[in-house]
Amino acid sequence: MAVLDVIKFGGLASRDWLVYKHPRESITMGSQLIVGEGQVAIFVKGGAICDVFTPGTYTLSTQNLPLLQGIINLPFGGKTPFSAEIYYINTVTRLDLTWGTSDPIQLIDPKYHVRLRIRAFGQVGMKIADYSSFLRELIGSMNASDIVRYTKVLDFYKGILVTKVKSIIADIIIHDQISALEIAAQLDDISRRVQELLNPEFGKFGMQLINFFVKSINFPDEDFETINKILEDKAAFEIMGDSRYATKRSFDVYEGAANNQNGVAGAFAAGGIGLGAGAAIAGGMQPGASVMQSPAPDAAYCPACHAANKAGAKFCNSCGASMTPPPPEPKQDVCPACGSAVSAGSKFCPECGTSLAPPVCACGATLEPGSKFCSQCGRKVGE
């Protein structure tokens, strides 16, 4: 039987195609159909999918078009013409498709408590697993010579893909309390979780998600600078200690005030010096003048409020408390017999008359008050 026509599609050099509708719809029985590697050819009649041809070369006949023959009742033999739509579908897996979040994920970093604008980028691999479902549910009717590319299908999925990525990244950062700076270690887990959520969605339309990778999670440089400043301050605090760090911060305020001629008073007020001192310095700071005046070396300090006073002052000029220290209370002892308070140096208790002189053992050793045995000879006290 002579070959009347050849039906084939050589694909695209870029491989960026999924579906191609062959321009010929009027077909003659006996035509040769060529299906290349990584392709399948599907015959459609009246919107219904009939016969599917895998890679190979076929001479069209009623034997290899059983479903189509049942619809249009083709006669056996001869060169009968008939009409049908032929779709070529790319079955090769694409692993180099890229995706990215079009707008940032805005959230508060749980560790540094600053607002971050996070973006994510990655790569996805997919293929057509169910040709009939894909053609029926996702593609529909096409014009002759139309081509559906991978990028168009990926755009269809991009909404749900990005939504799932955002949801999982936010969940890990917020609920697992992982800082955005530390989330790079979670990329494998994020990729796995997103792929598990997306596979059922892809499967509804005959697609299969081969792999899914989150390659990068980042945020703008200005957000990173904010966190970097926090880290620098934290490191300085740990190295210098509490008091020295506070002193350094005070000097930073003073330096900022000196460099800001229009806001010196406000800067000093923010530093805790006070509006009066700040305004005075802003209005008449002299070169070489000390910012903080130390008290005179002979100043006396109030024992109550610790304010500086002139040497020899009897009362504090700030709180009015007496600057004369109270006389020390006389030392007292306790009677070992009755427990009454006894003036230091007394020989007998004024309450019970017990002798307060240290007891002496028969061996001549002086005993500690309340001793029951001599520490020198071991004799019982009183024997």
Lateral strand order in the biggest sheet: 6-5-9-2-13
The amount of helix comes to 25-40%
Q: Outline, from the CA principal axes?
A: rod-shaped
Global Rg: 47 Å
Tell me the β content: 15-25%
Helix and strand content put the structural class at alpha+beta
Average pLDDT figure: 76
* C-alpha termini separation: 145 Å
Provide the succession of SSEs: EEEEEEEHEEEEEHEHHEHHHHEEEE
Q: Which stretches of 5+ consecutive residues score pLDDT under 50?
A: 264-293
Main beta sheet: 5 strands, antiparallel
Helices, by number, come to 8
The strand count comes to 18
Q: How would you describe what is shown here?
A:
- This protein is of the alpha+beta class and 383 residues long.
- It contains eight helices and 18 strands.
- The protein has helices spanning 66-72, 131-139, 150-175, 187-203, 221-240, 242-259, 264-270, 275-284, and strands at residues 6-7, 19-21, 26-28, 32-35, 39-45, 48-53, 56-59, 81-83, 85-90, 94-100, 105-108, 115-128, 147-148, 207-218, 300-301, 308-309, 332-334, 341-343.
- A five-stranded antiparallel sheet has the order 6-5-9-2-13.
- The chain is rod-shaped and about 145 Å long.
Features:
single chain, 383 residues, alpha+beta, five-stranded antiparallel beta sheet, four-stranded antiparallel beta sheet, 30% helix
Please give the structural blueprint.
Blueprint: E1 6-7, E2 19-21, E3 26-28, E4 32-35, E5 39-45, E6 48-53, E7 56-59, H1 66-72, E8 81-83, E9 85-90, E10 94-100, E11 105-108, E12 115-128, H2 131-139, E13 147-148, H3 150-175, H4 187-203, E14 207-218, H5 221-240, H6 242-259, H7 264-270, H8 275-284, E15 300-301, E16 308-309, E17 332-334, E18 341-343
Parallel strand pairs: 1-4
Antiparallel strand pairs: 2-9, 2-13, 3-8, 4-7, 5-6, 5-9, 10-12, 11-12, 12-14, 15-16, 17-18
Helix pairs in contact: 3-4, 5-6, 6-7, 7-8
